[in-house]
Amino acid sequence: MNYQPENYSIKDERMKPFIDSVEIWNIINNAKPTREKVKKIIAKSLSKRRLSLEETAVLVNTTDLELVKEIKDGARVLKERVYGQRIVLFAPLYVGNLCINNCAYCGYKASNKSMERVTLTNNDLVQQVKALEDTGQKRLILVYGEHPKYNPDFIAETVKTVYKVKSGPGEIRRVNINAAPLDIEGFKKVKSVGIGTYQIFQETYHPETYKKVHLSGVKRDFNWRLTSLDRAQEAGIDDVGIGALFGLYDWRYEVLGLLRHVNHFEAVYKVGPHTISFPRIQNASELNIDKRYLVNDDDFTKLVAILRLAVPYTGLILTAREPAEIRDEIMQFGVSQIDGGTNIEMKGYTEHEKNQNIDKEQFTINDNRSLEEIMNELIEGGYIPSFCTACYRLGRTGEHFMEFSVPGFIKRYCQPNAMLTLAEYLQDYANEETKLKGYELIKENLVNYNDDKFKDKLEEKLEKIKVGERDLYF
Ligand code: SF4
Ligand code: SF4
Q1: Residue 165's CB: how many other CB atoms inside 10 A?
Q2: How many CB atoms lie under 10 A from the CB of residue 270?
């Protein structure tokens, strides 16, 4: 049973809970930042080595503004040296908002009777996916509330449906999942239909706070959630995403909690999580939380820079919860993925209301730009927007690690694939102005290739896209 965690027993050492809040607080309380220490830690990260919990604690305790600037500059340098100019785009799609839990911070909580409850029918789902494809999206994350209806069979069926939808030249090439924890059999089922990443956020790594904000429902069980991605690993899903909801508890503790989670994965499975998300609490229908821990913009941008330095090879995901200005700053710290053209209302991609309706959403979003606007702005800012799914489709696993550690990987694979997927977008979906600017950007980036053989191959593929071929990659 997936919804009866009290029936599970920890038989496997690997699935034992690994968060010790006393240990984490001791590390934070013993970390004393000095100019020398902070500089040394930044230098360690820039030499492509992951930071320890103790080193990260020094950074989270740094308040001297000059040093904070150095931390942010360090994150920018790392981004420039390692990640280049491409940024991968995706869109979230809410499949159903039934929920049996009562999370204090979420509009979908079971006790919220003013919330409209919707589960997309097969036809609804097809319509939403078509609408997304018609804007140029290629990568989705499907989001589900926690409810017996959204069992592994249901999730698997919805994934299969999404992969089948083709609208004009559009198709979804990678479906990621954000759903409740499953048991090992459940994870095997969803793996079998070809999902990309399975994402589950712990919300808070502080067990007492966790109990306070998860008032009732299965989600109250801290350890069932904490060990969920271990079960995913056991089921063969090694592409997992972790995250914390910033604003529930002290942000410094949560940064270390995330890092502890990464350590656990690396120690047990020899591979870290694929991505880390760091959503910040936003207004929601019937929001009911302790506002003491809300994270201001200065701390938020600082914590993202610290995460970048702490785990230099893990993908960072930034979402439309954040307003455009904060997104623009944080992207300079090497965020690898952002969502674009996001609508989180149920059926929101076909029945879009001009003003956000708090009784239809899990929380409010602060970046309402369309995908086209985002593409335009990214191009203007010199970023290469990418819809690349090459590694996943070629079975190249551990892609974020490869980007980071395999010399030349980004130049040889990510950057060209970004150009190819951008060219597809420009041909199929962009207006004339974006098309001109986009091809100009591609031209500028082609100059960086002095290996003539490779450049010829890339140019050949770009020409093929101009005459109608699609889905070309390295
Ligand atoms: Fe349900 Fe998820 Fe919202 Fe909690 S956060 S109430 S589990 S939809
Ligand atoms: Fe990601 Fe691989 Fe594409 Fe690079 S080539 S953007 S690592 S999928």
Answers
A1: 17
A2: 9
